[in-house]
Each structure stands twice: as structure tokens, then as C-alpha cells.
Amino acid sequence: MSISQEEDKWNWLEEDNGKYSSKSLRGLLENNRLPVDLNPMEWLRWIPLKVLCFVWRARLNRIANKVLLQHRGVPMDSVECSSCFGEIEDTKHVLVKCPFARTVWGRIGEWCGLEIDGNLEFRDLLDSTLCINQPTAKKRTIYTIFMATGWAIWKARNAFIFNGVRLSVESVVDGVMVSTYAWMKFRAKRKDVT
Ligand SMILES: [Zn+2]
């Protein structure tokens, strides 16, 4: 066995030159070849790549919440949630359990006609849409809405932490409705979306 004297470096295995490219990432996403079993549903092509990437990271507990940053050695004054100051800010808390997130999910649940279980991890909440007794098209719509909801809650969290802007539950829910409508109507060209 020999150990190379060369410095370790990261290589992006999807390109011959080892350099990351968004084109090859899209290829991975579209071919469902990411190195984890994300979910039994295909990657929905009408969802923007940035949202898919966010959801992928959130499912793996890799979004930059305070607990994760502290774990990685980033100096933090506190790992308490900046919204409620009640609990530590981990992925489950920020995306599902925080009172702000819970209220958003409650409204989204009313909109979809579903009871949302606020004790689930975000990934389990997403996967729970697979068990709904509805046609596949309807399940995909709800899955899309749930992805958009996680993304919108995370953006609201960032708007407050980085810009001091406190978004209302209403504006977040409206944003989810507008973006899912646009994705499905114009990107998926679904004629049943009105
Ligand atoms: Zn909170």
C-alpha cells in the first residue's frame, strides 16, 4: 500500500475534469442518482433546481441551521431558535415544530384538506404525501406544495436572521400558493391547474 503525498482534494465525479457543474448536478437529480435513497417518488421536473437542492439537503439534515453550524465548529452565541426562543434550532424545529412553521403548515393543511402532523420530521412530512389516498397527479401536487412550504419557511427564517425582516404567516402561505401555481401551470404545463 502506498499513501500519496499529494494534498487531498475534492473531485466532482460526474465530470471528467473533476469540477462541479450545475449541468451535471441536474443530470444527477433527473436520473435520481444522488448517493442516497431520497424518496420513492421521482424528482418532479417542474420544481426549480434550487428548491430540489434545498429539499435534498433538508432531508439529509444538512441545511445550515444553528445546531448544525455549531456542530461544524462555527462560533455561535446561541443555538436557540430566533423565531420563538423556545427550543434549539435544528432542522425539525425550524421547518416543522417552531410555532411559526406549525402555523404555516396548519394553513397549508387546510388548503390541501389534510391534517398535518406537526411532530414529524420534514422528510417524513413530505413522504406522508405518498400515503394519501388520491390519484398520482393529486399526490404530486401536494408533494410539490409541501416542498414549496419547506422552502418558504426556510426563506422566511433567513429573511429574519440576515435582513431583520419578519414575514407574516399570511405572506409565506400566499408565497407558497403563488409559486406552486406558477410551477405547475407554466413549468409542468398542467392543464388541470386553474
Ligand atoms: Zn422556533
From TrEMBL:
<dbReference type="InterPro" id="IPR026960">
    <property type="entry name" value="RVT-Znf"/>
</dbReference>
<feature type="domain" description="Reverse transcriptase zinc-binding">
    <location>
        <begin position="20"/>
        <end position="105"/>
    </location>
</feature>
<dbReference type="Pfam" id="PF13966">
    <property type="entry name" value="zf-RVT"/>
</dbReference>
<protein>
    <recommendedName>
        <fullName>Reverse transcriptase zinc-binding domain-containing protein</fullName>
    </recommendedName>
</protein>
